[in-house]
């Protein structure tokens, strides 16, 4: 009996031991159900058949490198590039300033293929500097803080450009001007400044020589608007006049915009052969009109700041047949700009004003430099690289001329015009585009010291 009890006891203990051992897999069940463990076999199991082949199919060189003939294989040519404009879009000088903006807009639409073919998106960023130095400087700070802006197309007014250039220099932003003529734009050591037009030290000399040799002027009264541009070109006219025997009866500056009695009254008894005005059409128009009304019979003359049909609107018959100099001239004087003139008229419902075609060419120059810098850099270039590309620019054939820069940013040759106003009171804009070119001179810039 005892043996039987012992056997039964042993049997019960063995069954309990077996039952206890059978629970261990249940306790460890969560371990094999962890995701990593269940997915690893799934990815490894088909490995001998396909996984090593699938990446080869998706990365075949023939498929990924097909665009090689269009896009250079160096770098990632993606991203946004902006070309900014700075010109007066409001105020009395907007007639020319809008032309610069509009010309640049057409340029961005028509000339950016060298960048878009690389994969970039190109946009215009227009700024209204209001012909005010402080506004232009504030805009320059905004331009400098936008890393997508790689080139500035502007300004109209040299004084505004000179105020903004220190900011451009500090941020290495290249500025290519379609209109600035003050010598200090390129002589001032800013290193980021370029222009495609001539200089006032040459323009003033061209005006003085024409007045002396062609008009027979022996005496002149000079008035200027006290800006870097107007006073500068007036000073160069005076220097040449005094050196060549013309009597300078007066040299006066004024910021007056509408009433000029205080200046004109002393001029009347001096009876000068010529009144030369250094400034912009918006101020010159009322001045010339009031001079005629005051009985002054002198001929009138001025620089390219007068080059706008608005001068006829403001001055009327007082400016009929008068002469002026320009570094731009009407668009009709550039045969290669004929299509641009049509496109401008169609797009903006007004004739293309002076400097609009130059602004169009500046876009092309900026695009060529940025594209070259991008290819050299293997991707979106820095502003410093764009400045370097501008300094080494291949000759750019634009609609207003072929341009390359000397070591300070002046064009290696610039064109200067002497024009005569075609007075058409019924249609001043169309009449202005038919102003006669009396002289056309191509002159290299003075050698920098």
Q: What's the CATH topology label of the largest domain?
A: Rossmann fold
Shape: globular
How many strands appear in the DSSP assignment?
14
Quick one: CATH class of the largest domain? Alpha Beta
Largest beta sheet: strand ordering: 7-6-8-9-10-13-14
| CATH architecture label name of the largest domain | 3-Layer(aba) Sandwich
The number of helical runs is 19
Give a description of the structure.
There is one protein chain. By secondary structure, the protein is α/β, with parallel strands linked by helices. It folds into two domains: 79-198 and 332-412, Rossmann fold (3-Layer(aba) Sandwich); 201-326 and 433-443, Response regulator (Rossmann fold, 3-Layer(aba) Sandwich), CATH 3.40.50.2300. It is 44% helix and 17% strand. The chain has helices at 2-22, 24-27, 35-44, 54-58, 61-64, 94-110, 113-116, 133-144, 158-170, 184-187, 200-213, 228-243, 261-267, 281-293, 310-315, 338-348, 356-377, 383-391, 428-432, and strands spanning 79-87, 120-128, 149-154, 175-177, 193-195, 219-224, 247-253, 274-278, 299-302, 323-326, 396-397, 402-403, 414-420, 436-443. The strands form three sheets. A seven-stranded mixed sheet has the order 7-6-8-9-10-13-14, with helices on one face. A hairpin with a 4-residue loop joins strand 11 (396-397) and strand 12 (402-403). Helix 8 (133-144) packs parallel to helix 9 and helix 17 (356-377) crosses helix 18. The radius of gyration is 36 Å and the shape is globular. It starts with a helix and ends in a 6-residue tail after the last strand. Mean pLDDT is 86; it is low at 1-75.
């Amino acid at each position: 009996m005892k043996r039987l009890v012992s056997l039964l006891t042993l049997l019960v203990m063995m069954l309990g031991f077996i039952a206890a051992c059978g629970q261990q897999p249940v306790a460890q069940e969560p371990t094999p159900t962890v995701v990593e463990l269940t997915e690893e076999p799934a990815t490894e199991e088909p490995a001998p058949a396909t996984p090593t082949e699938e990446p080869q199919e998706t990365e075949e060189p023939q498929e990924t490198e097909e665009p090689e003939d269009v896009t250079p294989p160096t770098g990632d040519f993606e991203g946004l590039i902006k070309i900014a404009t700075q010109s007066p879009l409001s105020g009395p000088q907007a007639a020319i300033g809008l032309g610069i903006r509009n010309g640049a807009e057409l340029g961005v639409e028509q000339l950016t293929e060298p960048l878009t073919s690389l994969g970039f998106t190109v946009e215009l960023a227009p700024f209204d500097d209001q012909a005010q130095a402080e506004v232009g400087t504030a805009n320059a700070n905004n331009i400098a803080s936008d890393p997508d802006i790689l080139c500035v197309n502007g300004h109209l007014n040299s004084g505004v450009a000179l105020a903004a250039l220190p900011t451009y220099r500090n941020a290495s932003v290249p500025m290519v001007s379609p209109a600035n003529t003050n010598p200090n734009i390129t002589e001032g050591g800013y290193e980021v400044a370029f222009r495609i037009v001539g200089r006032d030290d040459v323009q003033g000399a061209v005006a003085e020589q024409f007045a002396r040799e062609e008009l027979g002027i022996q005496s002149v009264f000079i008035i200027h608007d006290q800006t870097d541009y107007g006073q500068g070109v007036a000073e160069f006219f005076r220097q040449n006049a005094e050196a060549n025997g013309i009597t300078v009866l007066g040299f006066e500056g004024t910021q007056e915009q509408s009433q000029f009695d205080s200046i004109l009254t002393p001029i009347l008894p001096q009876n000068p052969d010529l009144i030369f005005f250094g400034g912009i059409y918006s101020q010159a128009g009322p001045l010339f009109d009031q001079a005629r009304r005051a009985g002054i019979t002198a001929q009138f003359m001025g620089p390219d700041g007068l080059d706008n049909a608005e001068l006829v609107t403001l001055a009327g018959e007082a400016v009929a047949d008068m002469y002026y100099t320009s570094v731009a001239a009407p668009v009709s004087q550039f045969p290669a700009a004929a299509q641009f003139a049509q496109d401008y008229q169609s797009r903006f419902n007004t004739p293309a004003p002076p400097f609009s075609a130059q602004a169009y060419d500046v876009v092309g120059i900026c695009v060529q430099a940025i594209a070259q810098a991008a290819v050299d850099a293997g991707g979106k270039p820095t502003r410093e690289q764009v400045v370097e590309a501008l300094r080494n620019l291949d000759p750019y054939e634009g609609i207003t001329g072929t341009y390359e820069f000397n070591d300070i940013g002046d064009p290696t040759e610039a064109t200067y015009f002497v024009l005569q106003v075609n007075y058409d009171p019924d249609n001043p804009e169309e009449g202005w585009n038919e102003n006669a070119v009396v002289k056309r001179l191509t002159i290299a810039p003075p050698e920098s010291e």
